[in-house]
Design a protein that fits this description.
Blueprint lengths: L2 E4 L4 E2 L2 E2 L5 E5 L2 E6 L9 E4 L3 E5 L1 E6 L15 H13 L4 H17 L2 E8 L4 H9 L2 E8 L7 H18 L5 E3 L2 E2 L7 H14 L4 E4 L3 H11 L3 H7 L8 E4 L5 H10 L2 E4 L1 H6 L7 H6 L4 E3 L12 H16 L7 H8 L1 H7 L14 E5 L11 H8 L5 E6 L2 E5 L2 E2 L4 H15 L5
Helix pairs in contact: 2-3, 2-15, 11-12, 11-14, 12-13, 12-14
The structure holds zinc ion.
Length: 429
């Protein structure tokens, strides 16, 4: 469908447009920004008066199905959280449960302005089905682990499943795939090398968790005699198509490695705070030219998939920690949530510019908390909370229209998710 969005200023790669920037969408891509080509006849005109057009946000690290575990494992130490609560609950889930959980995640992301995301999950096919059903854009990756070498057969099976999934879903529009060695402490060195080789041979990029906690650093040092970053570098997993989530516990040498290899870092400020893992070295990474993207992580450790909350934390954390209000700027935050995320995920989106995929979010500026309009960039990072998102377009299709989902049966998803939670015992009534 050809769409004209008119009367809204836009956040462009070069900054905010001075006045309204008419955006023409032809099919799945942006045709023009600024003036309307003479021969362009839109099938739909969106009068976006009072709104701001921004690139559809990119959530560069999440586990969408984990919305099922929202608010049921809080205020726990990391090991109690993961091994005591989350993993036993995961054992109760089916692929169908994860389909509904992923759709709930998609609803939350769309309603807070996110157009695309990088997902890591435990059942092949569930996320693919949910994402293709709702029309979002996603990079999908089945989490791969061989239980640090204790379960080589399971590791092999997961890898085979992941490759089968890519073959089955690889040609579906809006979907692409990565290989996801889960973490340095859950994958043996041998398994890491196997995945790295496969990635090199097939060109499928790598998505992984890295340097999330002090415990991880200590475990890897004891077992392998190096830092987690050095281990992943040694096994060949770090390249310019790799997305590394968290990256909180980095030495200067680790930052050198990430910069040299061209790795993208998907930072997760709220999850790192929630699990008391600390604050990532974002100014240092940006200073070394590392591409920084922004992600929410799963709802079990956040507890939302709302990128606006993430933006605020990214902007504020290092200011407070370093007593330096210039540590991370609003523009750097927005870049991480848009162009930086798209670059990390290998997507031709993340910017409102001719030729780019038409992933666009419209923000309602007529909100008390965004008034007066002194500085729209600051508004997005420091004042907005996500509730101002009015409309989300993905690949030229309107998926969220003035607060209504166009492709998702809201009530059905809520009903099914409730049923799952009752069955696994996280809801007791
Ligand atoms: Zn994660």
């Amino acid at each position: 469908m050809d769409i004209l969005i008119k009367n809204a200023p836009a956040l462009l790669p070069e900054g905010l447009s001075g006045g309204p920037a008419d955006i023409c969408i032809s099919g799945e891509r942006i045709l023009s920004v600024g003036s309307v080509p003479k021969d362009f006849i839109p099938e739909q005109v969106i009068d976006a008066s009072g709104m701001l057009a921004v690139p559809g946000l990119v959530n560069a690290h999440t586990h969408a199905y984990m919305t099922l575990f929202r608010n049921c494992a809080d205020d726990l130490a990391f090991n109690d959280w993961l091994f005591g609560r989350i993993l036993p609950l995961e054992d109760l889930l089916t692929a169908e449960d994860c389909y509904w959980g992923t759709l709930l995640g998609c609803m939350e992301m769309l309603s807070t302005g996110t157009a695309s995301f990088l997902d890591m999950y435990i059942f092949c096919g569930s996320a693919a089905r949910a994402v293709s059903d709702c029309g979002m854009r996603a990079v999908l990756s089945r989490g791969l682990t061989d239980s640090a070498g204790e379960d080589p057969a399971g590791g092999k099976r997961r890898l085979t499943d992941a490759l089968d999934e890519m073959r089955e879903w690889g040609n579906v529009p809006g979907l692409s795939f990565m290989l996801a060695p889960h973490a340095p402490y859950t994958c043996s060195e041998r398994y890491q090398r196997e995945i790295a080789e496969l990635s090199h041979d097939t060109g499928v990029p790598v998505n992984l968790h890295l340097a999330e906690s002090d415990a991880e650093t200590a475990t890897i040092l004891e077992k392998h005699g190096c830092t987690p970053t050095e281990l992943f570098d040694r096994t060949g997993l770090l390249s310019d198509t790799t997305v590394a989530a968290h990256c909180v516990k980095l030495s200067d040498g680790d930052i050198d490695i990430l910069a040299r290899r061209g790795v993208s870092v998907a930072t997760n400020p709220v999850s790192n705070l929630k699990l008391a893992n600390g604050v990532a070295r974002i100014p240092e990474l940006l200073g070394r030219g590392v591409n920084v993207a922004l992600g929410t992580d799963g709802a079990a450790s956040n507890n939302t998939l709302n990128m606006f909350r993430e933006l605020a934390f990214l902007g504020l954390l290092r200011k407070g920690l370093d007593a330096d209000p210039t540590a991370v700027t609003a523009a750097q935050c927005l870049s991480a949530a848009t162009a930086g995320g798209a670059a990390a995920l290998g997507l031709d989106s993340g910017a409102i510019a001719p030729g780019k995929l038409a992933d666009i979010t419209l923000i309602d500026l007529d909100r008390i908390n965004l008034f007066p309009r002194n500085n729209l960039l600051s508004s997005l990072v420091y004042s907005a909370n996500g509730s101002e998102v009015s409309t989300v377009i993905v690949s030229g299709k309107i998926l969220y229209d003035h607060g209504e989902f166009t492709t998702i049966d809201r009530e059905r998803v809520l009903y099914e998710v409730n049923a799952v939670c009752r069955r696994i015992g996280t809801i007791n009534e």
